[in-house]
Amino acid sequence: MLQLTARLRDRFAQWGLRGPTPEAAPIVLTQRRIYVLPTKPGLAFALSIVVMLLGTINYSLSLGYVLVFLLAGLGVSAILHAFRNLSRLHLSPGRAEPVFAGERAHFGIQLTNPAASSKLAISLRLSGQSAVLADVPAQGRTDIELALPAPRRGWLVLPRITIETTYPLGLVRAWAYAAPNLRCLVYPAPAAKAPPLPLGAGDQQGSRLGGSGNDDFAGLRAHQLADSPHHVAWKAVARQAGDGLITKLFSGESSETLWLDWDNLPAGLDTETALSILVHWVLDAHIAGFSWGLRLPGKEVEPAAGEAHLQACLTLLALQ
Amino acid sequence: MIFKRKPTPPPTPLTRRQGVWLLAAALAGFLPLVPWLPPWMAPIAGVAFAWRGFLLWRGWGLPPRWLLVLLTFGGTVAVGFQFRTIFGKDPGIALLGLFLALKLLEMRSPRDALTVIFLGYFLALSQFFYAQGIVNAVFMAVTLIVTVGAQINLNHAGEPALKPLPTLRLAGVMLVQSLPFMLVLFVLFPRIPGPLWGLPLDAHSGMTGLSDSMAPGSISKLSQSDAIAFRVRFKEATPPPQSQLYWRGPVMSEFDGRLWRAGAPRVVEGLPYETASATSSIEQEVTLEAHNKPWLFALELPVSLPADAFMSRDYQLLAKGLVRSRLRYEVRSSPKLAPGVAETESTLNRALALPDNINPRSRELAARLRQEANGNPHRITAALEAFFARALLIYTLNPPLLGQNSVDEFLFDSKRGFCEHFAASYVFLARAAGVPARVVTGYQGGEINPVDGVLVVRQYDAHAWAEVWLPGQGWQRVDPTAASAPSRIEGNLAAAVPAGDPLPLLAQPAFAWLKEIRYRLDAVGFAWNQWVLGYNPQKQKEFLESLGMKAPDWKSMTSALALFCGLLLLGFTAWALHQRRRLAPAQAAWEKLSRKLARHQLARLPWEGPRDYLTRLAAALPQRRDELSVIEGLYESLRYSPNPPPELLATLRRRIREFRP
Fold first, then answer.
1. C-alpha B18 chain-centroid distance
2. Cβ contacts of B540 on chain A, cutoff 8 Å
3. DSSP at B13
4. How confident is the model at residue B1 (pLDDT cuts 50, 70, 90)?
5. Which of A146, B260, B292, B377 lies 20 to 30 Å from B350 when distance is taken between CA atoms?
């Protein structure tokens, strides 16, 4: 029974989207895709009105009629306001920064309100997740983030969003479904335990010459957890306005080249474990400031260093 | 609901702002009820409200649950003790008030808060069980607006918090939007004459009015009340003189020594007297307040029966049931009738019966008068009137308490009494002298409201007079009060009673300006009663017929109701759909171009700037390239140059209007 209702609900949502998914941006919540039904308090409100009406008729209270009919009108007004609160809201996909498997992916959604009145207490919810509440000012926009667990590497496509509101009276729920075209890249999780970096392996060019990389100061970057405390630029930290540590980079590090090779991994590993170890290595190499190349079956990234190179390698590993 | 799938989150605690709003809503619901709650409840609820306010102010937690359970239990017991039951209207409303006050201290989740809101709506209704004046309608409006405001806040927990004024404005807008629905429903919802089920016994308690028995002091108690008994609109331009305004009510023939009783009314078919002798008649349109008794009032004596009314053998107008809601009827009366010339023996015997062994001095007086008049009833009544005129009796609102021989004590000792003393003594003397007589109660006089010309009869106009039966003349009205205090009959209560007697505020001459205001309010109140409170099944039918509906019944009313509600709904839906987008004029024109080209799949994409769009259009419509580039140039200057000449806009609009892809 539960499964049946769940399936029906899913079918309804599919139909409720009114078009192919994912949808082109911006998604405008038109009246065709907004649904309105009473909430539990709304049903209780209707029941109260009926009880009051019975009492009013029984005691022939003229002002009772006035009150009961006013409350009924209020219920209608609540429907219209809830509907209007959602109507013509624009949804556009924002950014979704890559995450590692096992973390939560954050999908940015931009809500735009072209109307002359603000839209309040709009809730966005992914199935099974807790809702995010937002107010969108009149002719303004609000950026929100929807979090979703990312258990597996690869592309995590933003599932269907339910946008709903019970504002202003909580008696009716107006809602719509949307499937913005947004996906998040999920890198494989770095292996908890990994063999040490294959220094000196492969093409032999990547060997690190004992400590000579610490010689020439090359610049500064934000401190990362794995950076050695010896490399913290304390003077720079003291000068800067914000908090957070700064790491000194040394030019010697970039001269080293290291090949991280699928074939160099211990034999007998399954693909996921192998990828995790490679991710671990790539991160280690990046943190240590090595210049490294990556070889996967049928693919190869030329040795390089830096943030962009790191992203490129992780992307390749995610989609392997 | 079917499609709702929400992992039920733990109830979110209420914010302080929501707490303040709920406190305000509870106060707004509770305050209008205070006059009708048991007197001990207001201070207790006040303490609960103050306690809650203090906790909100200090940001402290709510009291423990066991304490609230104890308070609720104690309060319920107290209410039960006060009313001897916890069921019924009065204890029910008292309990509602109590629960509201205590629920405020037990608000942990939005669900509790919602209970407070709904209790507030119920409390707004319950004041109407006691009063339905304009003031109560105003109270209802205030209660509603604050409660709706609280409800709005309840549904907006996030930051930034809603400000109070815009919240109240939204609540006001929503209530104003529900007004047309209310009006349509009020006018067209088929009115069902209540009650639907048996009314509890206390449903109509607390209504003031005449009763079917009269003891010394019962009418003078009524005379302390300003409440309106009924209103009369005369069809004639000049109303009858004040001294002719005797509004006949219960007629009392049975006397047990202390209490005069009407006895069970004996009903007759039609009118029990000849109306042929009626030369002129006075037409009256009476609007009678509910008084929970069957009697109707009319000038003495009616020559026509109102619809759904009949008359008793002692000429009292009666409705078919108890008058439990305001009733309007038309009746004609003629002052010059001699009814009951051929009265039955049994009625006359009833009108002569007296209990033995009381009021010996009065009996002695009556016997002497009878002897002096040789038993002639005409002369006896004349002698009685002369006695009352000479007896130096004082008409007062504060008569002393009388003992067993009340007539003797009044006539010979205290000599101070109100109209019921006069009437009862006169009837006693007449009977003792062998003239059939009875007490008639009702109202005397009334006050013409100069604003709308309606005569208002209040409870303090309640009066008692006598009726004697004379052979050949039938029943004749005698007002012994008039003999002692003629100004009561020709003027009003204030003119008749000695200075220093506590008068109802409105009867006091010093408050003339208050009276003036009261006249105006009364006129408004009369319209209010006629159209709002008096809108019963009968009035609804009349009103709808006057609007051109033929033979309105519940079917035609329901269809009209559906039609109007549907129209309203359509109008409001259009409003909900139409949301202004405030575009700059140039932007609006540019959008129009995009809409024109949408038919050719060339609508502007949301992210496309004017130049990109132009490039794409020019590629798709090469033959229109020049025109398009002129339009784009105009748009660009309008949007981005610091001070575009205003005529550019007109040119842009014209060009876009004339553009054909």
1. 34
2. none
3. P
4. very low
5. B292
B 523-542 → A contacts, CB under 8 A: 532-536
Q: What is the tens place of the pLDDT at every residue in B218-229?
A: 777 777 677 788
Task: Write out chain A residues lying below 8 Å of B157, CB-based.
Answer: 121, 133
How distant, in Å, are the alpha carbons of A245, B252, B339, B381, B466 from that of B476? Answer: 113, 15, 8, 10, 8
Residue A129 sits in the same domain as residue A175: yes
Helix (H, G, I), strand (E, B) or coil at B255: strand
Residues 58-117 of A with CB under 8 A from B: 58-74, 76-78, 80-81, 83-84, 87-88, 114-117
> Which pLDDT value is given to residue A49?
95
Q: Based on the number of CB atoms within 10 Å of its own CB, is B17 exposed (0-12), middle (13-18) or buried (19 or more)? A: middle
Q: Please name the residue that has the structure tokens 């604050």.
A: B146
Among B136, B199, B579, whose Cβ lies nearest the Cβ of A58? Answer: B199
Q: Does A133 sit within 8 Å of B185, measured CB to CB?
A: no
- Is A314 in contact with A282 (CB distance < 8 Å)? yes
| B184 part of a folded domain | no
User: Which token pair is A196?
Assistant: 């040490």
Expressed as residue numbers, the domain containing A99 is 2-187
Hey, is the C-beta of B578 within 8 angstroms of any chain A C-beta?
A: no
- Copy the structure tokens of residue B373: 């008049």
Helices B134-154/B110-126 angle, 10° precision? 170
Q: What is the mean pLDDT of chain A?
A: 82
Q: Which one of B115, B140, B157 terminates a domain?
A: B157
B567 touches A: beta carbon within 8 Å: no
Residue in B with minimal Cα distance to A92:
B606
A217 pLDDT more than 80: no
Please choose, from the candidates B157, B2, B9, the residue with its C-alpha nearest in 3D space to the C-alpha of residue A35: B2
The total number of structural domains in chain A stands at: 2
> Are B146 and B26 within one domain?
yes
- ipTM rounded to 2 decimals: 0.78
Instruction: Return the amino acid letter for B131.
Output: A
**CA B622 to chain centroid:** 77
- Residue B6 clears pLDDT 50, i.e. is over it: no
Q: What's the DSSP call for residue B32?
A: G
Q: Do A74 and B178 touch (CB under 8 A)?
A: yes
Residues B129, A44: C-beta atoms closer than 8 Å: no
Residue A105: C-alpha distances to residues A98, A102, A108, A124, A125 (Å): 7, 9, 10, 16, 14
Measure the CA angle with vertex B143, ends A133 and B173; round to 5°. Answer: 55
Are the CB atoms for B382 and B374 separated by under 8 Å? no
Residue A163 and residue A35: Cα distance in Å, rounded? 10
B182 inside domain: no
Using CA atoms of B320, B225, A64, B192 in order, give the dihedral in degrees to the nearest 10.
10
Residue type, B243: S
Q: Number of structural domains, chain B?
A: 3
Contact (Cβ atoms closer than 8 angstroms) between residue B287 and residue B231: yes
B565 a catalytic residue: no
Q: Are residues B592 and B503 in the same domain?
A: no
Indicate the residue type of B494: A
Q: Distance from first CA to last CA of chain A, Å, rounded?
A: 40
CB of B655 within 8 A of CB of B626? no
Kindly report the three-state secondary structure assignment for every residue of B592-611: HHHHHHHCCCCCCCCCCCHH
Range with lowest mean pLDDT among A242-251, A261-270, B375-384, B433-442 = A242-251
The verdict on residue B141 lying in a domain is yes
- Domain hosting B99: range is 16-157
